[in-house]
Amino acid sequence: MRVWRREKSLIYALHPQRIPESGARITYTLGLGGATVFAVLVTVATGLALTLYYVPTPGEAHASVVLINDVASFGATIRGLHYWSAQLLVITASLHLARIVFTGGYRPPRELNWLIGLGLLVTALVWDFTGYVLRWDDGAYWALLVGTNLVRDIPVWGETLYRMLVGDVQIGANALLRFYAWHAFGLTLVGILGIVYHLWRLRKDGGVSRPHLHNGERRSFISRDELFFREFIAAAFIGSALILISVFVPVPVGDAASIDAGVTTEVRAPWIFLWVQHLLRTSPPLWAGIVAPLVVLVALAAIPFLDRRGPGRATWFARERWKPQLLLAVVACALITLSIREVLL
Amino acid sequence: MTATRGNGHFKVSRREFISTVGWGALLAAAGSCAAALGRFLSPNVVATIAGPVEIGTQNQYEIGSTTFIEKAHSYLIRDERGFYAIVAVCTHLGCTPRREGDPFVCPCHGSRFTREGKIINGPAPRALDHAFVGRSENGQLFVDPSRIVNADYRLPA
Amino acid sequence: MTKSLWILMAGSAVLLATAAMVWSQENQPWRTWPTRYNAQPNVTPVPVKIRTLVPTQTGKPELCITCHVGIEDISPSHRAEAIGCVVCHGGDPLALDADRAHSSTRGKRNPSDLSVAAVSCGTQNCHGGYADEEQNHVDRVLKSLQATYAGAIAMVRYAFGAQNSPLAQFGVHAVEDTAKQPPAGALAALEELPSTAILHIIDPEFQQNCITGGCHLWSLSTPQPYYYRSSGCAACHYLYNDDGLYQGNDPTIPRDQPGHGAQHRLTTAIPFTQCNHCHNRGNYSLKQMTFMPRDDLPPVAAPPSPHEPPEVRRLSEYYQPIAEFAKCEYELECVDCHTAREVMGDGHIYGSKKDVQYVQCRTCHGTPTTSPRVATIQDANELAVRQARINGHADFLATGDSVVETDRDELLWSVKQIAPNRFVQIQKVTGQVYEVPQVMGSKCAQDGETQTSDYCHQCHFVTR
Questions:
Q1: Is the pLDDT of residue A317 over 90?
Q2: Residue B29: which of C3, C15, C380 has the nearest Cβ?
Q3: Do strands C374-376 and B82-87 pair parallel, antiparallel, or not at all (unpaired)?
């Protein structure tokens, strides 16, 4: 009697039986989606390990981070892995979005999946931000202060939204607890379910988009064993790189949070929101902090509807799809430029 | 794996050898990571109280009195012979016995102990521990629950 | 590339990364210290792992002793297992990175530095916050002459015409006496000496030459042999060798780097060498606004030979060459006569040494017509008995004993009466007991009422 059968395994069920070879090439997809999934798995796993030590109260949060970083065996590595894989996941998700735009992977029938993916990117950014706050050091405290005060500026519902987010009329113990609950549990649920939905939708839509066949060309396929092997090797390399980065580039532990800290230290937003910080220097908070990000989001969401038909399918940088590619390029340049300018200030 | 026999040696192809070494490396790394995770889960700092707890001067405690000392999690008892302390941890599964009249009674499974911690009945396997009671150089009494003494020990008043 | 080669490369990468991870864990910087401790001669080796101290007062774990392995317990009154390290020093109790652990320590290495002493030492139930000023040691020291330097400041400014009376107005830092009625001779407040010429041209130079790094409790010492000391409470209570080298077992304190106390210990048994880190070091020149070190010891001359017997060596290291003193003044320690109230103040602000230093020869020796004033110990918890115990001589006093009482009602626990007109004194550092010769019944022809200690010296002095 065989207890485990390969052909009935979970890995098999998760992969289609045959995958068109042209869509599975790493030179085409760059493996970014897969890298993102792997990064999420590493982040969630290390995050679970961290919850065994982290204490989400203002009095103990920073001390528990110090405990993890200095005292727990391999604590610094696990914390580093958590941080670096989280940053990696934001980067690969963004690059994956770019790849989709530049190869037209948003084309029908994949518009819904594009929106799901965008939602996942937003989830990743909120995940990153809430995690940053949990450090409860100076930078975290100020980021929380600014971020939540921005919410207050929303007309009509601002104050209500603020209270729902913060759990009080000002940031403190309740805010930390809620951010912890969202970061460790709420967003994890959203993220995991979102990934499952994204991948299921992908299969429903016919898999990874791929170029038309040339005249006389016959479509070739790879088996799911082969695909899984490629995923496994990629995971091993990415995992090794993450571990090495965690060992040699330690994640900072700031001083414990205090509202007086800004008097002597520089206050800098987490890198994902540097561009917002820069805008906030010159524009009113509602425009810089709420409207601008929303505009970017809506612009990106509109991409599938900017270019719905025509040739230029599934090849990099097809000229027919110039509109969304230009839009993405402009948005990306703007965000990167603003971020760099903020850093150089 | 298609190792073949020839001339009394196992013949392994280069491909298989490389593959085996690679898998071996992966397995070793995975094992180390599991061990590392195990060490991570094992706490390096545990918060047990180091030592003695000062409890005031002897005049605060009358002969025949039983006082629960929270910080030492022990009962300080003064009898005619002097002071002794009973560690308030039931030897069955660790609940805190309470004083009901003369004996100590454990609320969890009903073990009963005498004033000196000897078992009367119940599932507890042995008598309650006695903690060391001493007098510091400034005349203060202290209880040290990390030092267990035998049941005859008394600090003379 | 073949599949097997991919597997080999992936496996090697993961193995390499894991090895790096394990290596970084086994080579954490804090491990240096227990390893170095074990390498010292004559120590019992300790396992190289994280060591936790959970003080009974706080219940919160502290990891300081992981690196500071073998550091001496600061004193029997401040046992580490009772109060821990962080309550005095501050710092991060859970950090094992040196910078992180020490970034929030109070007063850097010295939590008793006067800038932080109120928080480190003078908290409620420690050395502050009491109704009885006697127990508010930090407050007393902050107002004392050794901290305010008020007398020297007043005399210098008076000499230069910066003020038209020798009454003290300024101190190193501003202090205020909030008592309703300071005693006669005490001041209500002192202002901080300005460091600019806003009041008089002499102030900035005086500040720079004599106050900054000068001889008062706010300043740090000159880094030279015989001068090494700490500041604040530790200036007296934390003993330094004359060469300023650490002799204890903590591996984090370099034993070849001068500027560290002899051991991590506070004591009340303060030998004359400690006082001599400021006192008896030389003289001031008002004209040059500078300090002139004495010419028989470093830095001007060589130190006495280590082969000299201790008594001879002591004589040359004690008072400087111009001084005249009686034998008891170089056999006893400074603290045997200069009481806590003299040295640490009584909580009021005084402007001159003559208002503070009041113990005279006759306090213990009496006069031709009177015996020293005595008071009887009534209670085993009296201050005098507690002081005897803290000084390590708990057996010296018992309830019912009579001890000398000074003119200002201070009980000298170390001088007790054993018979009518017979007194003994226990030396506070060595514990040697001396009989105190009494003037009454001797050939002394002094007028006890008008003639002070200077007059005793005329006959009883010793010079080198």
A1: no
A2: C15
A3: unpaired
